Amino acid sequence: MKIIIFGSTGSIGQSTLSLIRILKNTQNFKILALTGNDNIDQLCKDAIEFNVKRVVTANKNCIFQLKQKLSSHNIEIYAGEEAILDTARMGADWIISAIVGFAGVPPTIEAVKHCKIVAVANKESLVCAGKLLIDTAITFKSKLLPVDSEHNAIFQCINSENPKTIKKVTLTASGGPFRNFTLSEMANVTVAQATNHPTWEMGKRISIDSASMFNKALELIEAKYFFDLKPNQLEVVIHPESIIHSMVTFIDNSTLAQLCPNDMRNAIAHTLNYPERKKIPIKDLDLTSLKNLSFEKVDEKKFPSITLARMILKTKGSLGVVFNAAKEIALDRFISKDIKFLDMSNLVEKVLLLPEMNEFEYTLLNSIDEIISLNNRVRQISKEIRI
Ligand code: NDP
Ligand code: MG
Predict the structure, then answer these.
(1) Which residue from 128, 145, 189 is spatially nearest to 337, judged by alpha carbons?
(2) pLDDT score of 200
């Protein structure tokens, strides 16, 4: 099986490599290409270990360093966004889209045109280009599979059921590090506190997005496109133990849930082995050691990101691009201490309510160039907007 890993140096990328490292003894894997951004040491180490054909860094300033480190190896070396798109054109049996943020959107669209199975971790692809992505997959006869643990759980629960019999989908959320904080305690939290996720080990940006529940907000929109759901079919429930990854309730009121230890290699392996199941090196789920599986409502006063996502779910246009771009800049501004934690949702709301964004409630952008251009415009506005 020919494999490409977009974002190999990140949390999902490393989990994927850890899985392949073990499974390659029994399965025939060939990694064609790895891509990263700044972490050249990790990129080179993995490229050599897995004897890949090509490595790409998104950061053109790193090409010299990359060439130097790999000078004694027969590996193709490229840099820049266009080189990542070109890597998708190598074609693969399985490609994982695990670049963080909007930067992962154009490569995912390109992957769908050239690769047989596209395992999507980059939720921004569905949020910003959901319809385009799904239509492109249909045109090019490729298969999109969800890696995000909630969406992978939903996919497993739906399995071969008739989609028309789905009553509702319940996404679970850990509640993040501030679940038990009051609103006033949340006002002055630091980046370090926000990055410290209670149940999952993930990249810095998604960890902070989990603390603000912007991650769950993006996942609601992601689920709408992945499973073609209506706003009233989607709900979020806080489940602090992160053992049930999501649930699907059918019209006969049967609810199916997917459970497994919180290790992303479960979802990644599900897409890698699909449609089969194979043994993987993660620990067993010991039900008797779980003291409790608990559920709580989301307090949307503390987590207005969920209210904003619901507003977007009800629209038919490209507000997902606006929401995501404003969120990415709000996150940058929080990380650089320019704005406070709770101001991230204030910023996103302010941008969404700008009169010039009204048209995107109805207008659905159908080309990646239009989506990129709106993303750039909203990023600029979000950098300048006063909070
Ligand atoms: P990380 O921050 O750990 O890794 C991101 C990857 O993207 C790295 O390889 C990084 O390279 C690369 N990258 C960063 N900026 C750019 C850029 N501008 N162009 C190209 N590549 C870039 O993220 P995660 O692995 O945590 O998340 C990846 C995606 O998967 C996100 O969309 C996230 O929402 C989603 N996801 C993650 C989960 C998790 O458990 N981590 C769970 C579910 C979904 P470098 O390291 O060299 O900087
Ligand atoms: Mg998730």
Answers:
(1) 189
(2) 86
Ligand 1 atom nearest 218 alpha carbon: 34
Nearest CA among 255, 220, 229, 258 for reference residue 242: 258
What is the predicted pLDDT for the residue at 281? 86
**What angle (nearest 5°) sits at the alpha carbon of residue 206, between those of residues 337 and 341?**
30
Question: Measured in angstroms, how far is the CA atom of residue 76 from the centroid of ligand 2?
Answer: 33
CA of 204 relative to ligand 2 center, distance in Å: 14
Ligand 1 atom closest to the Cα of residue 200 is 40
Looking at the CA of residue 215, tell me the nearest atom of ligand 1: 34
How confident is the model at residue 361, as a pLDDT?
Answer: 97
Asked whether 258 lines ligand 1 (CB < 6 A), one says no
What's the rounded Cα separation, in Å, for the pair 121 and 142? 16
What distance in Å separates the CA atoms of residue 340 and residue 225, rounded to the nearest whole number? 31
* Ligand 1 centroid, distance to 262 Cα (angstroms): 18
Q: What angle do CA 351, 373, 98 make, to 5 degrees?
A: 90
- Asked if pLDDT for residue 243 goes beyond 90, the answer is yes
Per DSSP bridges, beta strands 76-79 and 166-173 are: unpaired
- pLDDT at residue 358 in the model: 97
Question: Relative to the alpha carbon of 12, which ligand is closest?
Answer: 1
User: Which two structure tokens, joined as six digits, stand for 339?
Assistant: 């704005």
> Predicted confidence band at 182 (pLDDT cuts at 50, 70, 90)?
very high
Tens of pLDDT along 29-73? 999 999 999 999 999 999 999 999 999 999 999 999 999 999 999
State how far the Cα of 238 lies from the Cα of 249, in Å rounded to an integer.
17
Q: Averaged over 134-163, what is the pLDDT?
A: 98
- Dist CA 118 CA 179 (whole Å): 34
Contact 230, 220 (CB under 8 A): no
